């Protein structure tokens, strides 16, 4: 898997099991993407290769992914090696190359889904997601940073079921996405953090058309800032002993509950724009919270 404009390199072997030294004609078939065959170290392009009897020689195949390709586009190339001494002796290899638009910045590996990138990341890695719509329900179960290319055009769509982005680890950072289309039953959320999640940062996202936009329960010391949260049943919801969280500088509009705290204490709700909600900011069974300059 590679990204648009990348050249992916493969190493293949041509084996001569015959009794005589031989030269093999090399060719490519089926491919739509630019594919070239080089000598063993990739220093020059070749169309034939000489192989002594009982030995193998390596060739390098380079496939370039076109700039126009979107996530999940793919190409297959058939590499043929035909003996010049006996054209009945033919060997071949098929190479499958796929375009991925999700990159682990630390490892340089590309993926076609966010979930696969999360699953294969090391703790603390940064995952960059290019523009596009990703129809996924993403589970983030390790500390990492997830960055979208553009909050308006990098979209995670839950397909109308479940929670779109479910965070079960501390030290997770998410920015630069539109997160939308969760399931419509209670606690199905655009972004959900629960059961001891702490020190996460959710900043600069658009969270829209979910049951709960951003939902926290039993979670503390998280920052929810500079997001646009709109057209959810509950915009930003803190439930069940979520404490010491900062909810700041968000735009929260056209939800039933704009910002709701229930059984949650010692949180800061400040400098948010909260308009056109049925309930703007509502607290119940919550104490020692700071609500200021909204």
Give a structural overview.
The mean pLDDT is 93. The protein has a ten-stranded mixed β-sheet. Strands 11-14-17-20-23-26-29 form a seven-stranded parallel β-sheet, with no helix packed on it. The protein has 294 residues and is mainly beta. It is built from one helix and 31 strands. The protein starts with 6 loop residues before the first strand and ends with a strand.
Number of strands: 31
Unreliable spans:
none
Q: What is the structural class?
A: mainly beta
Largest sheet: 10 strands, mixed
Strand content: over 45%
Total helical elements: 1
Short description:
With 294 residues, the chain is mainly β.
Give the arrangement of secondary structure elements.
Elements: E1 7-15, E2 22-29, E3 35-38, E4 48-51, E5 56-64, E6 74-83, E7 90-98, E8 102-104, E9 110-111, H1 114-120, E10 126-129, E11 132-135, E12 138-140, E13 145-148, E14 154-157, E15 165-167, E16 173-175, E17 178-180, E18 189-194, E19 201-203, E20 206-208, E21 212-217, E22 223-225, E23 228-230, E24 234-239, E25 246-248, E26 251-253, E27 257-262, E28 268-270, E29 273-275, E30 279-284, E31 290-292
Parallel strand pairs: 10-13, 11-14, 12-15, 13-16, 14-17, 15-18, 16-19, 17-20, 18-21, 19-22, 20-23, 21-24, 22-25, 23-26, 24-27, 25-28, 26-29, 27-30, 28-31
Antiparallel strand pairs: 1-5, 2-4, 2-6, 3-5, 6-7, 8-9, 8-10
């Amino acid at each position: 898997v590679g990204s648009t404009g990348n050249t992916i390199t493969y190493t293949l072997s041509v084996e001569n099991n015959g009794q005589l030294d031989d030269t093999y004609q090399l060719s490519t078939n089926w491919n739509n993407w630019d594919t070239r065959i080089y000598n063993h170290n990739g220093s020059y392009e070749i169309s034939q290769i000489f192989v002594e009897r009982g030995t193998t020689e390596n060739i390098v195949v380079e496939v370039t992914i076109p700039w126009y390709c979107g996530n999940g586009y793919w190409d297959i190339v058939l590499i043929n090696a035909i003996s010049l001494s006996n054209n009945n002796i033919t060997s071949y290899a098929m190479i499958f190359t796929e375009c991925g638009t999700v990159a682990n910045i630390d490892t340089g590996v590309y993926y076609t889904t966010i979930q696969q990138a999360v699953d294969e990341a090391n703790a603390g890695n940064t995952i960059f997601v290019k523009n596009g719509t990703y129809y996924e329900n993403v589970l983030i179960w390790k500390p990492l940073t997830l960055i979208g290319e553009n909050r308006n055009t990098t979209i995670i769509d839950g397909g109308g079921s479940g929670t779109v982005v479910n965070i079960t680890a501390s030290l997770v950072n998410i920015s630069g996405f539109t997160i939308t289309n969760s399931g419509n039953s209670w606690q199905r959320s655009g972004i959900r953090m629960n059961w001891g999640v702490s020190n996460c940062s959710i900043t600069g996202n658009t969270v829209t058309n979910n049951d709960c936009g951003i939902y926290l329960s039993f979670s503390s010391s998280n920052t929810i800032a500079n997001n646009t949260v709109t057209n959810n049943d509950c915009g930003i919801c803190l439930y069940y002993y979520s404490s010491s969280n900062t909810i700041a500088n968000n735009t929260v509009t056209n939800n039933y509950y704009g910002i709701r705290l229930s059984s949650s204490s010692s949180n800061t709700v400040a400098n948010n724009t909260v308009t056109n909600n049925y309930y703007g900011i509502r607290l119940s069974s919550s104490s020692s919270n700071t609500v200021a300059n909204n």
